[in-house]
Amino acid sequence: MLLWRIGRHLLSIAGIVLLGGLISATLVRFAPGFDTDEHQFDPHLSAESVRALQESRSGEHNVLRYYTSYLQGALHGDLGVSHALGQPVRTLLRDRWPVTLKVAGIGLLMGWLLATALAFAVSLTRFAAYEILGTTVSGAFLCIPAAVLALLSVIFNAPGYLAIAFIVFPKIYRYTRNLLAKAYGMPHITAARARGLGELRILFWHVLPVAGPQMIALAGITVSIALGASIPVESLCGLPGIGQLAWQAALARDLPLLVNLTALVTLVTLLANSSADVIVYMVRSREA
Amino acid sequence: MNAARTLACAVMLIVCAASLAAPWLASAGYAKQFREAPGSPPSRQHLLGTDEIGRDRFARVLYGTRISLLLAPAAALISTLLAALVGGLAGYLGGAWLRLATGLTDLFLSLPWLFLLITVRAILPLNVSPVFSVMITFLILGLLGWAASARVLCTSAQSLRSSDFVVQARASGLHGSRLFFVHVLPNLKPVLYAQFWISIPVFILSEANLGILGLGVAEPLPSWGSLLRELEGLVSFREEPWRLVPLLLLIVVMTSFQMLLSKEEVAV
Nearest Cβ partner of A145 from B124, B208, B266? Predict the structure, then answer.
């Protein structure tokens, strides 16, 4: 059953990644201005060079043909060459991915630690001061755009992962707080308290089994949020990760890079969500 | 309405009224350059000083607020209508339509939204006019931001499909579009309104992110995103604290939105 579930997830991931790549290629192709290359406006280029530049992109005009040839190349490990940077996309992704993995990974870990610590403190102690602190702080961070948090981290000379931590923190805190509040409001928890069970025992035996699976599902979603946040954070903080690469590719209308980046980030997001689904399934089947 | 909501309403009204009264409140237009005073500190003539090319910051904040606050609801309207069309109809029709809509929303929710957004926004023509850039920015936001609302509407429409009054209407001989428009859609209104209001702050933040990255509203038109871009050159808050006014305004408006939306609506 578990193997079937994993297999089904992998199949749907492959389908969505392929479709996602096709959608991004189509969007780029049909967006107005696709034919305009900034280099064409370079006054140093001759008419012949401009024509050669236009011809070099002629293969991208038919989306299906472009995407089919891209997939054929991808099967052999060739992801194409970046127009703007003049380097193989595979090399660019290989060099940039570890930076994003580190920044987004540490940011996510910090965000989760901060948010869950505060949510558990609020739920366990039930101090009004903690509740007000949590609501105010998470509310304030929800109101600030990710790019502003990145700019603030530059002004305060703080590391980029701190910006990512504060971007994911309010969402994790509010969701976890709501889950814990719901779990603590269940009748069997009141009964357990009436019988004199300690708060920690109630938390580990009665609250976490209820709230845990949904928190694991949230973990998958926060990976997507952190990867999205990596664009402004890496661009503004000058971190050479895939977020910054996506930014450069978007400005340079670099189709091969954009398609690969969209497919890669979609793949990672889906893998994170599917892993969370499988873990939740395993936890629930063990409980049953 | 509790005190916090009343306060939030009052704040929103003041901000909207001030932005609409920009031509009377500001000493100059948003694009007028005072070339003798670039980067000047606040004075009686320029309440928030001038920017690097001598434009009055106060005027730009007022006009920028007008653009962000008027066009985010427009984007929210587009996304809500799309969500109603895809989610509402699929939930009502069921069967293959439902499976198709679920697959489509799953696909859109799985795609990295910000990656798609900057991709589409960045490939506009280089000679795009400022007004066109405003329209296209919010059109893209509306067209790409419908999936989450569609899923909510789909679930609501599904539950309505099997409700007593719809079954009774069907038994009375009402079918097709008439049943949908007369009985289903009016009952989806509360969900549609909620999705519309929830989308507005999301689109305001998205525009701000795009603007800071240089992909939002084109110069010389101001918006909160392009105004926040000025923070990029700031070294410390003590140097020119008046440059933080757009950020404070954004935080105040977003907090007001949070207060106006109920707890259930803003839950992740």
Answer: B208
Residues 6+ apart with CB under 8 A from B158: B91, B92, B94, B98
Q: What is the three-class DSSP state of A239?
A: coil
Spell out the alpha helix ranges (H) of chain A: 2-30, 47-56, 63-75, 89-125, 128-142, 146-155, 160-184, 187-194, 199-202, 208-237, 242-251, 255-287
How much is the pLDDT for B123? 65
How many interchain CB pairs under 8 A, A with B?
138
Is A77 an interface residue toward B (CB < 8 Å)? no
Contacts of A246 in chain B (CB under 8 A): 115, 118-119
Query: Nearest Cβ partner of B212 from A232, A261, A266?
Result: A232
Task: Please tell me the distance from the alpha carbon of residue B187 to that of residue B199, in angstroms, as a whole number.
Answer: 20
CA distance B167 to chain A (A): 34
CA angle B239, A229, A232 (to 5 degrees): 45
pLDDT in tens, B105-154: 877 777 777 777 777 766 666 567 788 878 888 888 888 888 888 888 88
Dist. CA B261–CA B268, nearest whole Å: 13
- B93-102: long-range contacts at Cβ-Cβ below 8 A with a sequence spacing of 24 or more? B94/B158, B94/B161, B98/B154, B98/B158, B101/B150, B101/B154, B102/B151, B102/B154
How far does B185 lie from chain A, in Å, by closest CA?
A: 30
pLDDT band at A75 (very low <50, low <70, confident <90, very high): confident
d(Cα A218, Cα A225) in Å, to the nearest integer?
11
SS3 assignment, position B52: coil
On whether the pTM is more than 0.90, the answer is no
* Helix A2-30 and helix B95-110, axial crossing angle in degrees, nearest 10: 80
Give the A window 101-120 contacts with B, CB below 8 Å.
Answer: none
B143 part of contact set with chain A, CB < 8 Å = no
Structure tokens at A175: 């969701």
Task: Give contacts of A 55-74 with B, CB under 8 A.
Answer: none
Q: What does the pLDDT look like over B69-108, one tens digit per residue?
A: 888 899 999 999 999 888 888 888 888 888 888 878 877 7
Instruction: List CB contacts (< 8 A) between B255 and chain A.
Output: 139-140, 143
Structure tokens at B223: 């918006």
Q: What tokens does B57 get? A: 């910051």
